[in-house]
Amino acid sequence: xxxxxxxxxxxxxxxxxxxxxxxxxxxxxxxxxxxxxxxxxxxxxxxxxxxxxxxxxxxxxxxxxxxxxxxxxxxxxxxxxxxxxxxxxxxxxxxxxxxxxxxxxxxxxxxxxxxxxxxxxxxxxxxxxxxxxxxxxxxxxxxxxxxxxxxxxxxxxxxxxxxxxxxxxxxxxxxxxxxxxxxxxxxxxxxxxxxxxxxxxxxxxxxxxxxxxxxxxxxxxxxxxxxxxxxxxxxxxxxxxxxxxxxxxxxxxxxxxxxxxxxxxxxxxxxxxxxxxxxxxxxxxxxxxxxxxxxxxxxxxxxxxxxxxxxxxxxxxxxxxxxxxxxxxxxxxxxxxxxxxxxxxxxxxxxxxxxxxxxxxxxxxxxxxxxxxxxxxxxxxxxxxxxxxxxxxxxxxxxxxxxxxxxxxxxxxxxxxxxxxxxxxxxxxxxxxxxxxxxxxxxxxxxxxxxxxxxxxxxxxxxxxxxxxxxxxxxxxxxxxxxxxxxxxxxxxxxxxxxxxxxxxxxxxxxxxxxxxxxxxxxxxxxxxxxxxxxxxxxxxxxxxxxxxxxxxxxxxxxxxxxxxxxxxxxxxxxxxxxxxxxxxxxxxxxxx
Length: 593
Hints:
The protein has helices spanning about 5-25, 30-35, 40-55, 55-70, 75-100, 105-110, 115-145, 150-200, 205-210, 220-230, 245-260, 265, 275-295, 295-310, 330-340, 365-370, 385-390, 395-435, 440-460, 470-495, 500-520, 550-565, 570-580; strands spanning about 340, 380. The chain has about 600 residues and is mostly helical.
């Protein structure tokens, strides 16, 4: 069957499944809308959490970053998985025991202040909206290829789908939809990886194929082959560390504590029946996540090798060494239609020169070959996972499956984030602070209106994102790390932190991180004002905007401690509440000290 038709069938069937579940599990109460009635089994919740977590950044963009950054991209693997250990051990069980609907509700109660609750809502909205922008980029990439339309049109189509099932179903509908989406995305991610690993290394397990020798009988290991191919074209070795150690450490830390502080993930642990189920859910989620995350390094490396070998077909610098543009494969033409892949014939020879024209050591080779610069003027990293099966010439049904998986990954996380935003506005701001008299029916209406507004805002900024999907998501993690994570940690484990300290800490952490991001990224407000954000020489001590969240968290902790030490202690009943939160269920009440 023709690829376009098959893709429409596979993706269409997955859409029908998601929408059918949304209608079947439509939320009718605020409890079902916010926390699915607290009746989700921990294994099912772990699978839904994994889908909620494995966003467009994980499915579409992470392997693309690994493909182009190599060793340095390992921080995303370490940070995004390591954060779940923190979440399972330090936050999930205690917040589930407290038993409220949202993260701002806990912060407002723990720090006995409506101001603290409002500030927490602001932090949540800023982090979640930034995260949704990254999902919108992924949705646009997936839909533009699936529909064979420009990126902008693909984004609008994806926004419409998200609007339908997220606004209708609430947390109850989204939970069951995410379980289906997990099955689709993990199957779509691993099947082509197995095919490509067999092609390149004769090993059916991609995780092992990454360290295996090539199937061509040369005896060369896959990573060594990739290093050689990239080196021949002036690129840095794939396995070489290119960034600074301090930045890698801070970025890993920022992603870890950002994971533990993300509201749309935390709220998933409010949906299980019992406290111990929250920890069990986190464990199951990590198992389900590990299936994709252990496969991603192989997908990234193999995609980069296939891309280079497709374009560089002979000896570097020889007249016949480069692919003739007129003979470019179908996958190349398909991605050109989206605007995410662009070629410019700079020397007019009709062949594609793809090399590192920024490398002075390669200038002599390029000059002798008559090259006038890198002619692949745009290779969006977010296309690599979706394009990989086409580049490897896998069967059409595999290519269609990957398209469905990419869309499922983007939609699942976007829905979870939009729910977190909607609940913070309707439940925390309106019901909790400004209009406590509204009925449950009105609160549901306000939630859906807030979600619709969030979709429009995120879609607008998704048209002009400040980076690739995974890079934008890393910024969101930094914002969550610098604002919400310290407040939650101190709220659970430190009795002496008062409302003034918590508010000052959240504002200081969020404010410093936003200023750093705006200074180097310049997006949102004043286009064209960014410094050279990808140039580490401009960063403070080599710390990238994505890594600054860890520094912002330190600022948050420090300010909260200093302000709390100079102001009155929290009331006795608040200190007693903090002790009770940490006591395991059934062990008796905490004692005053």
